[in-house]
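Record format v2
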Amino acid sequence: MEAGELCLPKLGSRDGKSCRLRWTNYLRPDIKRGKFSFQEEQTIIQLHALLGNRWSAIATHLPKRTDNEIKNYWNTHLKKRLAKMGIDPVTHRPKNDTLLSGDGQSKNAANLIHIAQWESARLEAEARLARQSKLRSAGSVNSFQAQSSEFASTSSQIHKPFGPGRCLDVLKAWTSTGVWGQKSEAGAVNSGVSMTGVACELESSTSTLSSAAGVGANSCDVDGGVTKEEMEEEYWKYLPEQRNGIRSSFPFTSAWATESIRSTSEHVPCGNFVEKFTDLLLSTDRRLSEDGGESDDGSGSGGGSDYNEDNKNYWNSILNLVNSSPSDSPIF
DNA sequence: AACGCCACCAACCGCAAAACA
DNA sequence: GTGTTTTGCGGTTGGTGGCGT
């Protein structure tokens, strides 16, 4: 049975669920309508590369845009634009893969995907925390008010305790220490590095874990009958002293997380191909629309530049994107 | 004017998880 | 603990308007 079918009177042909949907997607006063800006497009593409079809998560970084609107915009505009450029809109990789083949680029792309999945699972956890926190703080506020002031309330009541930079703490650790692209080192102090090391150990001690991770497979199911909670417990055995400090960054929400961290600890930076690609995509599209000219060589992968530097730039851009975005993001 | 095609987007649908009784 | 209701989400559909023929 769907929501509202019994408990709310019908408004014309609309039931409660339909009314709620119309409110959240259309009538809510804090919804921005109209054309998406260049910045918004870039944000959507980058976040989609990270999160896949997690429209609600993406929407948290685009204040005043609904997940439905973003989803529609992606399906009607951005997806086609990607396809037109020979980019797989699901994987965000060139369809023929030639641009990424040969050197470490293919691996880099795979790593990025792993990381994206890793982060997306953590986003889910963060979102859950935020929801719980919101419920606690909502107190006696009636549901209508709570809903209509969602953005404001989440920013002022939920996120402050976590701090503005809480979001991508692990990524920050990677970028700030330069550990990205290097073998993990024992005794590293920050959470990202520590977890990298732990991930390796954990994997070796839990042979049931799979290293699957197909592109876009955001499922948080854990293979081999190991539950998320079990994995989490296992994880904290290795890091008891950090249990309170970085709990929200627990990475092993699925099997692929282990693999993703393991693989990134083994080698290479991922390359900043997503960012460059995004820029390329958008700029190319602009050029095409402006003068009908042809795009440049399309080597958005960054060629032979300094990978570590590129990576730093890439993740910094993501961090900037996330952190500069409305602290009103319900998740961050 | 009539028709077909296409793009856009609000709305619908089904499912899962959370909340509630 | 269990069943029911509510909420949130992502995929898909259908109505509408613009455009070309």
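The first helix of chain A runs from residue 16 to 27.
The beta strands of chain A are 87-88, 93-94.
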